[in-house]
Every structure is written in C-alpha cells, then in structure tokens.
Amino acid sequence: MLRNYLKTTIRSLFRNPSNTFINIFGLSLGITCSLILFLLATFLLSFDRYHENFERIYRIVHSANDQQGSRVFGNGVPSPMTDAVREEVPGIETIAFVSNKYSNTLVAIDDNNSGDRRYFEEREGVAYIETAFFDVFSRAIVKGSLAGFGQPGKVILSEKLADKYFDSTNIIGREILLNKEQTLEVVGVMEDYPRNSDFPFELFISYSTIKKEYEQNGWGSVSSDDQIYLLLGKSTKVENVNERLAAFKEKQFPNDDQDLSYFLQPLKELHFDTRFNNYRYTTVSDGNILTMVLVAFFILVTACINFINLSTAIAVKRSKEVGVRKVLGSTRKQLVRQFMGETFFIVFLSIMFSLGLAELLLIYINPFLEIDLSINWFTDGKVELFLLSTLVLVTFIAGLYPSFVMARMKPAVVMKNQFANARTSAVSLRKVLVVFQFVITPFFIIGTLVLVGQMKFLKESDLGFKMDAVIAIDVPESESQQKKTLKNGIERISGIQQVSLASRTPLSSSISVTDIQLDNDPQDYYCDIKWVDENYLSVYGIELTAGEGLNAVDTLTRVVVNEEFLKVARINSPEEALGRMVHIWNRDVPITGVVKNFYSRNLRMKMEPVMLVNGMGNARTLSVKLSGKDFNNQLNAVKRTWQQVYPEYTFEYEFVDEAVASMYESEERMATIFTFFSSVAIFIGCLGLFGLVSYTTNQKVKEIGIRKALGASVSNILSLVSKDFMMPVVIGFVIAAPLGWYLMSQWLQNYQNRIDLDAGVFVVALVATITIALVTTGYKSLQAARANPVDSLKDD
C-alpha cells in the first residue's frame, strides 16, 4: 500500500511539473526564511541567560521628567549609591559596582624586566569591578583565583587577552603596565564571554584601585559608564527593593522637581529595553523580535496559501483519477490519506531543500549581522523541534482542505465532467486566500516604506552641528601637557583648519550628567556635561546666540549652555541667562554664553540640556577639522605628529559623520533584514498568484477563444482575466492599510524624533501592490489574449 501511494505521489508530481515546482520552491523559500528568522530570534532571546541566577539579577536604572513632562531614562548611577544600597536595602544577596572605560587603554608587557616592552591597545572591554561581580555573574576562573583581587592593583584577564599578552602558561603573578603609569598584577584568567552576551569586558581591574577617586563624587555626578548590578535573595520582591530605592531620591534630592526615580531592571531585559541601552549599544526592542516572528509566520502562511490554492485549482484536473479510484472501491479515508501523503512528501522535500538554502544564506547573513548563527543538530533540540513542527503543521494546514476537496468528489458528477461547476466552495476559499495574500503584500510594503523612511530621517536630520571633514581621534589617558603638545603640533600642519580637545564629540553614545543649582536657588537641575576647549564651537559650527564661548584656560571659570538648558531652568531668553551664577562641584561660575541646541545623544532621544565647561584633563577626544577634498596628505601629517607624541599607540581615527551614522547600524541591519524577508514573502505570494493565473487562463482558454472570435480586443481579454484578481487586491489593501498604520505608529513611538506617517506612504503602497498584481497576472493574461482562437477551438 505504501509503495503504491509513493508511486502515485511521484507520478502526480511529474504530471503537473509547473505546479510542483511552484509548490516546492515556494515552500522551500518559506521554510528557509522562517528557519533563519527562528534562529535569529532564539539567538537574540538567549542573551545573558546562561548565568546561573539570571532571573534574580537586576541593574539599577533611573528615569526623570524632562521640561515637557515626558519621561527620560538612563542606566548610570551615582557611585555613592553602591554603599548606600549595601547598607540600607535588605534582601540583596550580592551587589557589584561596575565602571566601564571606553577610552583608549595602553597595556605594556615587560617579559624579562629588561625595559623592552611589548604594547597592546584596548579600545573597549576594560572595566573596574568589585569582587562581588563574580558572585552575581556566572563566569568561571580557569586559572588563578579571586583571592586578593579585592586589593588595589590587581587584574583578571579573559582567556583571549591572556593568550594575546603572554606566550607561556605561567600567567598568574605576571605584571602589566596600564597607560604607562599603573602596574597591575595578574591574579586570574576568566573564561571568555560567549557571543550572546551584552558584556564586552575582557580586562577586569579591581575597583579598589580607583575607589579613592570615586569617593570624591557626590550623588549628583552620574555617568553612563558607572552601573550597579544586584543579585536579589530568592524570596526578595522587586517592588520592595524599588520602594527602598525611591527613598534615596527623597533623602539625597529633596529639592528635585523632575520626579527622579531609581528602580530595578531585570538582566533578561538588558538586550531588549531600548530606553536604557546596553554596553554594546545593540539593544533590540521586543517589537523587533515580535516582527521577526510575524514575518516568519506570514511567509510560511503565504507559502501554504499557494499550496492550497494550486491544489484546489488542479482538483478538476485530477477529478477523473479520483472518480476511478472511488469506483474501484477506495474510501474517502483512503483518498484523504493518499493526498495528505502527497502533501507530506512535498513538504519533506521542501524542508530538505530549505536546509541547504539556509546554510547558503547564513554565509552572507552572519557577517552582515556580525553574529554566528548555525544549524546545530542534536544540541538543545530547538532546530529539530522547529523542523518537526513545521513538517507536521504545514502538512496539516496546506494539505487538509485540498485532500477533503478531492476526497469528497462524487464519481457520477466527475464522470459527467460536472465537477468544475460543482465546486463553488473551493473557488470561494481560493478568493478568500488570495485576499489574505494581498493583505500581507501591502502590509509589508507599508512596513518597508516606514522603516526606510525613518532610517533616512535619522541619517539626514539636522543635528545642530556640522561634521563635514571632521575626524575624531581617541586620546590616551595622559598628562594634559602631552595632549596640548599633540593639539599644538596638529594645528601647525598645512591645511588643518582647527583642532579641539574635548571629552567627547557633540553627539556620542555615552553622557556624563551632574546636578547644578542656579544662583541661590536650591532647586537641582540636571544636564549633560562636556569638557571642551576654546575651539570646540568653531570646529563643529555650533552657533552662539548670546554671549561668548569658553576661553583657553584649563580651569573652571565660566560655562556655556544650550537653549534647552534655558527651558529646563525656566530662563526666558539667552540674554537673561548671561551672568547667572551656576553652582557646580562646590564652585560658583557665571554663564557667559548660550548656544543653539544640538543633539548630544542619538535621535532616539529628546534634545538634552547641555553645559560646556573647560577641562583639558578630562579630554578623551581630539577633533580635527580638515580642508579641501584630498585629505590623504593632511591625515599622513597628523599621523606623523601623533607618532611623535604617542609612539607606543596606534594612530586610529574616524570621520565624525561616519561615527554618527554607525549609531544606527543595528536599526539599519534590522531594516535590511525586514526588507529582505518582506520581499521574499511578496515574491512567494506572486509565485502562487502566477500559478493560479496560469491555471485560470488554461481553464478559460475556450471562453477566451470564443470571445476573440466574436470580436473581443486584447484589452477586453486582459480585463476578463484580471478582474478576478483586482478586487481581492483592493479588499486586501483596505484591510492592510489600517493594520499597517497602527503597528508602524506603535513602532515609531520608540523614537523621540520620527517621521510623520502621512497618506503618501499608503498611496505608494497601493500603487506598488496594484503594479505587482498586474505584472504578475499580466504575462499569462497577455499570452492568452494574443493566442489564436483557432488553436483553442479546433478540438470542438
């Protein structure tokens, strides 16, 4: 029996090669895309879940009201909060303070104490941590131990860095020199972090090494570099800890009117909560994960719809086969089993093809997304479960209805060739399914247009400063005089317009917030602090609206604020702000200038109040304004000057406009992924529509021949064939438009600065959908319209 079913299945596949190709190719594409999106979604959802107690690990974050009353969010905390939480908040099993260092770090290794050093640069992954960090997070110490790590001058390396720095296995007890001034002893080697981690750390320095510096910071000094992680007790309730954290605001900021709030963020949300971001600035919103799942679902559903439509359409062609089988004694159950078996065979073949296609696509997707997806067999069972579920569900969904349609055929009706007129229910279902396909098509088009439009808006918006031909160079932590020597040397290079030393470029991924007071008002105001020099405004073209900029001194004698600061401080005009005294870091200094607003963080956030202050010692970035079009000579001269001042460091730079654009790389990648898979979904839908139109024209070939013989024009025939498909297109769009508007409006809420979702998007989507439908149906319709009616009528 099984052998007979298999023969019948293979014979049926070869009897209808075009339909077989469309079904297998469409299902293979659908399963491939669904598998890749499944792998991507499971990879993203696995971030930092390998920690033993990840469900009890939390990060302290904060939020406050801006001047419009909207909530703004941050992940930085004042360093004194660590001891305060440790002493005053019960139910905490372990607490760990982490200070991440983004500045360029120079590591020197002296192998034989001969003074002949090897130098390495670490541009990220350097952090000052407490020993408790390893109690909160599950990372194994593979060499050495944590004993003594709490003392100053101790360091733990990742396996990667240990192999990079030292050739021998005798690593414990060796010394490294940090930034040419700080000697650290290696006490341990920690296993590397996996790819699915938001923690980029590789070089762990004991927090006690810099604790005295941090003890000078007050509750008003907040940097996104400084964060606190907690491991809650098994019976501790999050709401109870949040209540205790809220009490710190009342105690430390009694005059705050911005509704400052400290609360816990679960570790499992670190990769998904875009309000707070992570160390790598690669958060992916829950909405994006849901979008992947929906796209995968719709792609698979579209492929199933193709199968159902084509299977029911060719039911007429197979009606005599069914009639003969019933006359020879086949029961309905046997026929259903046969047709379900055919579907199972097609789906199985499609899965086999999809596995090879998925492996091929991953070769290109992995480097594009900078991840390492793979189809891992027999590891955690997720891939096997997905493929088995797909095989069963797609077989059931795609095969059940066509099987019942063909199994219910009555031999008497079939033998009289009346089945084509009798199966109106199958025709009605096909129309419903075509409508559903044309809900999916305009929805994906609307989504793609909004995504592309928002990405273009982010990249082309006016940020309030100019960055053309400006390069940014990370400056090592060194003496101010050394930085000044570099700056002065570059200023003397021919073609260099201006040079500025500052803590950061105008728009950067990290901020440093502090509280200040105005005049004798005890009210606290918060703003982003940037340490800059006298050239900063001119290098970036930031326009003064009143007063004057900073001078060339390296001490805090005056400050410059932006217009957003005036709104926060309720100052009516730039002129009114001049001369107002700012109390900051136990000093009173005057506001001497007001500049136009510029974005200090990316456009996901609102405009921030910014204060510019003098401070060469805090300079991390050297900004160089180039001139002309050929920058090579200038860059080579800058490199030579750099090597004279910092011979141990590698000269690296980036253009500021490219650095700003890179802040949206994760969104751009997700937009590209969405666009690609949306296009695949639309293509699969078109493939099925093409097959359906092909079959429809073949069924109407004699009708078309008669109409042409009676004088019908090509346009009349095109209208005849296309009318059955144009109405589903319109109905589908009417359903898709409000759905697309609602979902994309919700997605745009993730951005404080966003495009308007106007009618133009929907007009373009409608035109594109109709064009796709016409092009898909047009070829076969035109072919049928131009056919010689004699050929179609000569049999009669």
UniProtKB/TrEMBL annotation:
<dbReference type="GO" id="GO:0005886">
    <property type="term" value="C:plasma membrane"/>
</dbReference>
<feature type="domain" description="MacB-like periplasmic core">
    <location>
        <begin position="20"/>
        <end position="247"/>
    </location>
</feature>
<feature type="domain" description="ABC3 transporter permease C-terminal">
    <location>
        <begin position="676"/>
        <end position="789"/>
    </location>
</feature>
<feature type="transmembrane region" description="Helical">
    <location>
        <begin position="21"/>
        <end position="47"/>
    </location>
</feature>
<keyword id="KW-1003">Cell membrane</keyword>
<keyword id="KW-0812">Transmembrane</keyword>
<feature type="transmembrane region" description="Helical">
    <location>
        <begin position="289"/>
        <end position="316"/>
    </location>
</feature>
<dbReference type="InterPro" id="IPR050250">
    <property type="entry name" value="Macrolide_Exporter_MacB"/>
</dbReference>
<protein>
    <submittedName>
        <fullName>ABC transporter permease</fullName>
    </submittedName>
</protein>
<dbReference type="Pfam" id="PF02687">
    <property type="entry name" value="FtsX"/>
</dbReference>
<feature type="domain" description="ABC3 transporter permease C-terminal">
    <location>
        <begin position="294"/>
        <end position="411"/>
    </location>
</feature>
<feature type="transmembrane region" description="Helical">
    <location>
        <begin position="432"/>
        <end position="452"/>
    </location>
</feature>
<feature type="transmembrane region" description="Helical">
    <location>
        <begin position="385"/>
        <end position="407"/>
    </location>
</feature>
<feature type="transmembrane region" description="Helical">
    <location>
        <begin position="673"/>
        <end position="693"/>
    </location>
</feature>
<dbReference type="InterPro" id="IPR025857">
    <property type="entry name" value="MacB_PCD"/>
</dbReference>
<keyword id="KW-0472">Membrane</keyword>
<feature type="transmembrane region" description="Helical">
    <location>
        <begin position="343"/>
        <end position="365"/>
    </location>
</feature>
<dbReference type="InterPro" id="IPR003838">
    <property type="entry name" value="ABC3_permease_C"/>
</dbReference>
<feature type="transmembrane region" description="Helical">
    <location>
        <begin position="725"/>
        <end position="744"/>
    </location>
</feature>
<dbReference type="GO" id="GO:0022857">
    <property type="term" value="F:transmembrane transporter activity"/>
</dbReference>
<dbReference type="Pfam" id="PF12704">
    <property type="entry name" value="MacB_PCD"/>
</dbReference>
<keyword id="KW-1133">Transmembrane helix</keyword>
<feature type="transmembrane region" description="Helical">
    <location>
        <begin position="759"/>
        <end position="779"/>
    </location>
</feature>
